[in-house]
Specification:
146 residues, extended, 78% helix, mainly alpha
Length: 146
């Protein structure tokens, strides 16, 4: 089946109706903001407990990763993502969800071929591109002095 560009565009628009931006944008903003506020609250709790510097950052990050994985395991993160869309892509909880969701989905295939292999299907490209970009940036900084 050979389609012209116009035919393809018409079929594509028919198959994917426009998203309700007037609802999606405020929901994404609100949920993303709430996740960030939660992270700031967790940080404040650890700071009040006497942590500082690297220990404070590590404890906050670990707690937010745990919360992202726990919400994914309980089936709540996907529901939240359906409601808020891009608002759930807040880096640390969104990344935790991106690793945990495929791991949970493919666990029936076994630990090695299911969970371990599929765990990074979503997060893998993010890691590869992020690490590659940081290496490239480091090389540029090294060559041109910074």
């Amino acid at each position: 089946m050979k389609l012209s560009n116009e035919e393809y565009l018409r079929l594509s628009q028919k198959a994917s109706p426009p998203s309700p931006s007037s609802r999606n944008i405020p929901a994404a903003f609100a949920v993303g903001g709430l996740l960030c506020a939660l992270g700031q609250g967790v940080r404040a709790l650890y700071e009040n407990a006497g942590l500082s510097g690297d220990a404070l950052a590590a404890a906050t990050a670990a707690t937010m990763v745990f919360l992202g994985v726990a919400l994914t395991a309980l089936g709540l993160y996907p529901r939240l993502a359906k409601l808020a869309g891009a608002g759930t892509l807040v880096p640390i909880t969104g990344f935790a969800n991106a690793v945990a969701a495929p791991a949970l989905e493919f666990r029936a295939e076994g630990v090695v071929l299911g969970t371990c292999v599929k765990m990074f299907t979503i997060a893998g490209p993010v890691l590869v591109l992020g690490i590659s970009a940081s290496v490239l940036y480091g090389l540029i900084l090294y060559v041109f002095g910074g």
